[in-house]
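Sample intake — TECTA protein
Collected from: Donacobius atricapilla
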Amino acid sequence: PSGSLLYSYGPHQRDETNPKHDDGTSEAITLSVPFTFYGKTYQTAFVNNNGVISFDEPIRQYTPDPFPLVDGPPFVAPYWADVDNVLGGDIFYRQTTNSELLEDISRDITQYFPKNPFTATWALVVTWDHVAYYGSSSEKGNTFQAVLTTDSKMSYVIFNYWDIQWTTGTASDGDAETGLGGTPAHAGFNSGDDTNFYNIPGSQTDAIINITTTSNVKVPGRWVFRVDDFQVTSEDPPQATKNCWL
């Protein structure tokens, strides 16, 4: 969308599209460049409809659990909630070495992490485009994006939140008309062990609806993390938190 934080996506970028299945997932994606996450290197990822990118195994769970989770694969969760792309929306993904896009990503990350100049050599761009929630009786849709990128030494994840209209599907005790209540969405990182994880403030509370107005890099709607050796970025409390959380 014009003026948004989202990097380019969609059929015109030759993105793959996830099947229209409730709690569905992509095929196994063999990463053309290995991605290091919490000190471990992975070569297989899955784009899961319910707002999660996982390593080695898919994740079909629709109601989020608090991190850390120690009994499942490691994953990145830009917005873990009960998406139903049968009712509406699309989930796009692609691996890319497009020089123009990598230049944009490199410039953004170097701006946020000036002590570690970064030149991306690869990225996985995953976009949930106006996706509906399970049990929806409304036209509400969420649009958000996660970008995994590396220079083969450092690895980063960018979360971009453009339009968040709902937090909860009905199977997670949300309201069919509003998409609110119950057990709301969760955003963050889970390493697969019981010590390394990060929860974006507001996760699993009603306040997660406001994630388009919060940031850890002073850009509302964008959260950026170095994840090879995971580091929490910037200010505490995060930028804009005081004004925007419920």
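Post-analysis note: The CA atoms of residues 121 and 151 lie 5 Å apart.
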